[in-house]
Specification:
The chain is α/β, with parallel strands linked by helices and 597 residues long. The chain has twelve helices and 35 strands. Strand 5 and strand 6 form a beta hairpin. Helix content is 17%, strand content 30%. It has four domains: 112 residues, 3-layer Sandwich (Rieske Iron-sulfur Protein); 177 residues, 3-Layer(bba) Sandwich (FAD/NAD(P)-binding domain), CATH 3.50.50; 114 residues, FAD/NAD(P)-binding domain (3-Layer(bba) Sandwich); 75 residues, FAD/NAD-linked reductase, C-terminal dimerisation domain (Enolase-like, domain 1, 2-Layer Sandwich).
Length: 597
């Protein structure tokens, strides 16, 4: 709590990341500022000097920094209600739960969603946009996505009035970085051994490193990545293709210095020797570890047809890839191969930049396997209304070039489509080739199987993120691969907790989102194998909720313009309660709000 003088509270010293500019639109904002730092590849990681510190606000604000106001009468809020209240220097989320009032930051630190529109349940509030959860007693982040927690403010009741007292600075920051240990290892930055080595600096790798520091771990942590950049918001690449790398950074470079998390960029691991607990990098640099997290993510699949070597046939994996697509597509003819999330997001983004956008897909409708025929068709119509042309139930048979550059895409249906740029979004494969001879178990598709604690078959070696299969607790421990941003966060945390022998298990309900033409679709659950889709609302108007069922049970939900229903369903599933098909068939949603049976 950022304490203020007048009320007796326990004061905790807080490290807070520098204030940032107000978040932009929901799906396009990025957290933090940062800049890339190259790994020299000379066998030594860069050494961080102790005087390089993240500047932080003073942990004990003076009374002048505080503001206090009566915000409502005690009877103004019912139990289970939330309200945004104004303190002059900023808004606060006021929550009444079990007769007690709590005051918290009012915006989700992930993308700035108004939490008052979220879901209050079991002592936590869940974000309406992307499902992050915050404890109302502490403000702590309890489920992902995002990295930061909420500020918790002081509440007192006097003469039936509710007063909130807060630091002005905290009101303006709207986010709180949890207290973290610093690295006190004398060998940090110099030696060829580390206590924890993390391969892959996506969400899983970063959250693992941060969780270790939050839990008081003060030994050396090395995070290595193939990328040129510090950890960044990868889902944004396909939604906003011309965003610059520094706008995508999840943490500024000062953050990594302050907490002694060493990042090796452009560092490729080529072999893992589990017997001697050592990895070898492409440049010959060797690093010993005592605990290892493998979070290498995946690599985009490429086309294998005739002419695949012509120029301007691209996949998207890095900010440079995304920026290049926009640069080449401006005013030109674009063909997108694959009508999954990446392909459709790219197609939507390019409609205003390119001369024409066409989508080629093997299925009858976009997203068919994931969202079903009817939802897929409704989304397809939205794209057609935005001048996107579809070539369905066919695939690319040839890429034709002129002077080495793409000119036409030939389809198996024998149609020829003019194309200056082709973006391939036909899925990805786990980037685990470097583990083949390691003794670390891989399945037939190259995924790393782990248990609920994110442990591989080798003691001390953990894995997380897009490259793993793990047992999904609320689907009878079925072994699944869920390549979602939010799942990677959760798995990174569980891996860190188990490196510290805390016996944590994966229990997160999967949650994802997509954004196209300024409209968001949210999704929670795991719908693979659904045998029916029950739709409430209006598909044509794109204001609907779709329940995916298997037998008698709801296994997933998707919605557009129906917040916070996906977060509500996620909360119900997270509580361990099964949702029956008959409950959603009637159109009566009272069971969701707790007013029904």
């Amino acid at each position: 709590v950022l304490g203020c003088a007048a009320l007796p509270t326990v004061e905790l010293k807080i490290e807070v990341v520098l204030p940032e500019k107000e978040r932009g639109k929901e799906e396009l904002s990025a957290s933090g500022k940062g800049s890339p730092r190259a790994y020299q590849g000379n066998g030594t990681a860069r050494h961080f000097h102790t005087e390089e510190r993240l500047s932080t606000p003073h942990p004990y604000p003076s009374p002048q920094d505080c503001v206090e106001a009566a915000v409502c009468h005690v009877k103004d809020l019912e139990n289970g209600q939330m309200r945004e209240v104004e303190l002059g220097w900023g808004k606060v989320l006021l929550v009444k739960d079990n007769g007690e009032f709590h005051a918290l930051g009012h915006k989700c630190p992930h993308y700035g969603a108004p939490l008052v529109k979220g879901v209050l349940s079991r002592g936590r509030v869940r974000c309406p946009w992307h499902g992050a959860c915050f404890n109302i007693s502490t403000g702590d982040l309890e489920d992902f996505p995002g990295l930061d927690s909420l500020h918790k403010f002081q509440v007192k009741i006097e003469k039936e009035k509710v007063y909130v007292r807060a630091s002005k600075q905290a009101l303006q920051l709207q986010r709180r970085t949890k207290v973290m240990a610093k690295c006190i290892s004398p060998s940090a930055g110099y030696s060829s051994s580390t206590n924890v080595l993390i391969v892959g600096a996506g969400a899983a790798g970063l959250v693992c490193a941060e969780t270790l520091r939050q839990e008081g771990f003060s030994d050396r942590i090395v995070l290595c990545t193939l990328d040129r950049h510090l950890p960044y918001d990868r889902p944004k690449l396909s939604k906003s293709l011309d965003t610059q790398p520094e706008q995508l950074a999840l943490r500024p470079k000062e953050f990594f210095r302050a907490y002694g998390i060493e990042v090796l960029t452009e560092a490729q691991v080529v072999t893992v020797d589990v017997r001697n607990k050592k990895v070898v990098f492409k440049d010959g640099f060797k690093l010993e570890y005592s605990k290892l997290l493998l979070a290498p993510g995946s690599s985009p699949k490429t086309l294998s047809c005739k002419g695949k070597e012509v120029e301007n046939v691209l996949t998207i994996r890095t900010p440079e890839d995304a920026n290049r697509v926009v640069r080449l597509a401006r005013g030109r003819n674009v063909v997108v191969v694959g009508a999954g999330f990446l392909g459709m997001e790219v197609a939507a983004y390019l409609t205003e930049k390119a001369h024409s956008v066409s989508v080629v897909e093997l299925e009858e409708t976009p997203f068919r396997r994931f969202l079903g025929e009817r939802v897929g068709r409704a989304l397809m119509k939205m794209f057609e209304n935005n001048r996107v042309k579809f070539y369905m139930q066919t695939e690319v048979s040839e890429l034709r070039g002129q002077e080495g550059k793409l000119k036409e895409v030939v389809l198996k249906s024998s149609k020829v489509v003019r194309a200056d740029v082709c973006v391939v979004g036909i899925g990805a494969v786990p980037a685990t080739g470097f583990l083949r001879q390691s003794g670390i178990g891989l399945d037939s598709r190259g995924f790393i199987p782990v248990n609920k604690m994110m442990q591989t078959n080798v003691p001390g070696v953990f894995a997380a993120g897009d490259a793993v299969t793990f047992p999904l607790a609320w689907r009878n421990n079925r072994k699944v691969n869920i390549p979602h941003w939010q799942m990677a966060h959760a798995q990174g945390r569980v891996a860190a907790q188990n490196m510290l022998a805390q016996e944590a298990e994966m229990s997160t309900v999967p949650y994802l989102w997509t954004a196209m033409f300024g409209k968001s679709l949210r999704y929670a659950g795991y719908g693979e194998g659904f045998d029916d889709v029950i739709i409430q609302g209006d598909l044509e108007e794109l204001k609907f909720v779709a329940f995916y069922t298997k037998g008698d049970e709801v296994i997933a939900v998707a919605s557009m313009n129906y917040d916070p229903i996906v977060s509500k369903v996620a909360e119900v599933l997270a509580s361990g309660r099964a949702i029956r098909k008959r409950e959603v068939e009637t159109g009566d949603m009272s069971w969701l709000t707790g007013k029904g049976s």
